[in-house]
Amino acid sequence: MTRPSDPQAVDLSQLTRISLDTDHPICQVCGQPLHEGDDITAYAYRAAGEPAYAIGYVMCGSDTHEHPTVFTRGVREYVLTGHIGTCSNTHTQSTTYVLHDPTAVVTSPTTTAEPQIHPDAPTPRDPTQPARQEPTPLLTAVREHARSDGGSPHEGSE
Ligand SMILES: [Zn+2]
After folding, report:
1. How far apart are CA 13 and CA 86, in angstroms?
2. What pLDDT is stored for residue 93 in this prediction?
3. Cβ–Cβ contacts within 10 Å for residue 14, how many?
4. Is the CB of residue 59 less than 8 Å from the CB of residue 29?
5. 84 — phi, psi (to 5°)?
6. CA torsion sign, 108 to 13 to 117 to 27?
7. Could you report the per-residue pLDDT of 30-53, keeping only the tens digit for each?
8. How far is the CA of 45 from the centre of ligand 1 (A)?
9. DSSP per residue over 91-146, as a string?
10. Which of 15, 2, 59 has the alpha carbon at shortest distance from 33?
11. Are 43 and 77 in contact (CB under 8 A)?
12. Burial state string for 39-64 with b = 16 or more CB within 10 A and e = fewer than 16
């Protein structure tokens, strides 16, 4: 049985030239600086509902380090080998590091039959994920302060 369109091939086309999202790529495991043309292993993921993949971390070499193979349910994940390339941005005159020639070495289970996803599931998938949120008490305090201070013109209880 042949599949008309290989979802992995589609994903790989998305993952080609994906930004490594760092100005100074280093190996997540040993800290070695990585340069253009180097072989790298990258962990990419795409959470449910997200339009594109993001790089979680990169490692030096071609799948030479051991890497965590913890996969998150509901998240499409790849461990990829490839090379570091650069992409110049003429607007900002900066250079973006991108992944060239990605090859999937590990793929998360394709079964995402369970739509139940914990939004704050503790996963090690992205150490740089901006997951900070305003603590609710502060938010509530701000809101209440604004209310008592600005007042609502309707009530006029004083
Ligand atoms: Zn390394």
Report:
1. 17
2. 84
3. 14
4. yes
5. -85, 130
6. positive
7. 999 999 999 999 999 988 888 899
8. 20
9. TTTEEEEEEEEEEEEEE--S--------TT---SS-TT-------HHHHHHHHHHH
10. 59
11. yes
12. bbbbbbbbbeeeeebbbbbbbbbebe
Gap from CA of 44 to ligand 1 centroid (Å):
17
Q: State both tokens at 132.
A: 């900070």
For ligand 1, a single-atom ion, the residues with CB < 5 A are: 27, 29-30, 32, 60
- Best CA proximity match to 18, nearest among 58, 50, 53: 53
Cα separations in angstroms, 128 against 57, 85, 120: 9, 21, 15
User: Are the C-beta atoms of residues 136 and 143 closer than 8 Å to each other?
Assistant: no
Per the listing, tokens 């997951």 go with 131
Amino acid at 64: T
Tell me the two tokens of residue 144. 């209440």
Ligand 1 centroid vs 67 CA: distance in angstroms?
11
Q: Compute, in angstroms, the gap from residue 104 CA to the centroid of ligand 1.
A: 18
Tens digit of pLDDT for each residue in 76-90?
Answer: 888 899 999 998 878
